[in-house]
Design brief:
This protein is of the alpha+beta class and 296 residues long. The chain is built from five helices and 14 strands.
Length: 296
């Protein structure tokens, strides 16, 4: 075989190897990110077909829950699987048709006189799927503040925390939020999805702090129950600087830095639950910053 044929064969082999290598590289890359992959509202890369199926599933589940109880608002889902809970809202102790809700006190007594009760009292010890008193199985219901509208600056959702004696699984209601008392559990649990009737909202944990109900400082500077931070609807007063002061107070009293900065332009989701052994005195507050919305 002469030199010319050898060079031709060598060149052909090199071209073939280059083609094979190119195919392997392309295959490896496409295994990590399909050319049709998109970024969802939470900032993660997803396959569009899978994402569409996920949204359809959300819609089906939302419709099914809303058919059970029209007060159902949506689901709060930690992407890590830490927590998935449905939440409801009663605007007052009376339904839209004027009929009084059937609801209970903590000891299981049926409320007959609405008195000073608000919509928050309707579901605190009443399970939203049955309308019956439920202390041990679900701890009543997880519910959004009766004053909230979905486009408010701050949505407040309350959920019970169970003691070990009646929840060894640590899965009921807002009990899993106790994980955030330790910084080591933040990173894997920081992303949250809220499923509503016509859109999905994406959040990230921005701050975790303990609210000391025995200390006036917290009542004055860390009023997480405001639906609009610069307006106090309990006293009907406006303070244009309150949100900035609240953010600073949270930053100073948070259990650890999260790496997520709050600004006065942000909308938030605030989750409140009790801390074991400190019922009525110490509350765990998890503040989530809204990062995107996606209609469906």
């Amino acid at each position: 075989m002469n030199k010319k044929k050898i060079l031709i064969i060598f060149a052909a082999v090199m071209v073939l190897m280059a083609l094979v290598l190119g195919i392997m590289i392309k295959g490896a890359y496409s295994g990590n990110q399909n050319e049709e992959d998109i970024v969802d509202g939470g900032g993660d890369i997803v396959n569009p077909d899978q994402h569409e199926m996920e949204l359809l599933q959300y819609k089906e589940e939302w419709n099914a829950n809303h058919n059970i109880n029209p007060d159902y608002v949506g689901d709060i889902v930690f992407d890590s699987g830490l927590l998935r809970v449905s939440f409801v809202q009663a605007k007052s102790v009376f339904k839209e048709d004027g009929e009084m809700y059937k609801f209970y006190t903590e000891n299981g007594s049926l409320v007959t006189d609405p008195g000073d009760y608000t919509g928050n009292d309707v579901y605190i010890w009443t399970y939203w799927k049955t309308g019956e008193y439920d202390y041990n199985n679900h701890g009543g219901s997880t519910f959004m503040d009766y004053r909230n509208e979905l486009n408010d600056q701050n949505l407040i959702v309350y959920g019970h925390h169970f003691s070990v004696w009646n929840d060894e699984t640590r899965q009921k209601a807002f009990t899993p939020l106790e994980k955030f008392l330790e910084e080591e559990n933040l990173d894997k649990n920081r992303k949250v999805t809220m499923i509503l009737g016509n859109e999905v909202r994406y959040y990230e944990v921005a701050a975790v702090y303990n609210f000391d109900a025995t200390d006036d400082y917290y009542y004055e500077n860390m009023q997480y129950w405001r639906t609009s931070y610069n307006y106090d609807d309990y006293t009907d007063t406006v303070d244009e600087d309150y949100y900035a002061r609240y953010i600073q107070a949270v930053k100073e009293h948070q259990l650890y830095p999260t790496g997520v900065e709050l600004t006065t332009d942000d909308k938030t989701l605030t989750l409140q639950t009790c801390i074991s052994g400190h019922t009525g005195e110490l509350f765990e507050i998890v503040v989530l910053k809204e990062i995107n919305r996606e209609p469906y």
